[in-house]
């Protein structure tokens, strides 16, 4: 398939309309409000532990990132090869960040709990 044929095939699928973009924007706004509430619930109101607030905020941030990439950057409508090219480095980044968190936060606490 030539690049011109691929371009024609790409343009034949339907992209979201203005109504869908507004709805996605509202969902992203609502998710941001929940993130802010999670921060205040931990910091000012004392309703959440620091760890739980961090997990809530991290998960919502990751979900917002995925929504933006899929819809606003049109990854959902592009070739699956682009999805793979995007997912591999994203998973690698998650792995590295998780390993750094464990190395800096979890392991030192385990050592002090064991009396080291």
Describe this structure in words.
The protein has about 120 residues and is mostly helical. It has 2 domains: about 1-80; about 80-115. The chain contains 4 helices and no strands. It has helices at about 5-10, 20-45, 50-70, 80-115. The longest helix is centred in the last third of the chain and has 34 residues, at about 80-115. The N and C termini lie far apart (about 65 Å).
Please render the helix and strand layout as text.
Blueprint lengths: L2 H10 L5 H26 L6 H23 L7 H34 L3
Helix pairs in contact: 2-3
Membrane topology: Multi-pass membrane protein
Pfam family, one: COX4_pro
InterPro entries: Cyt_c_oxidase_su4_prok
Features:
mainly alpha, 2 domains, 4 helices, flat, Cyt_c_oxidase_su4_prok, membrane, transmembrane, cell membrane, transmembrane helix
Work out the count of structural domains: 2
Q: Can you give the helix content as a percent range?
A: over 70%
* Radius of gyration of CA atoms, rounded to a whole number: 20 Å
**Number of discrete helical segments:** 4
Short description:
With 116 residues, this protein is mostly helical. Helix content is 80%, strand content 0%. The protein has helices at residues 3-12, 18-43, 50-72, 80-113.
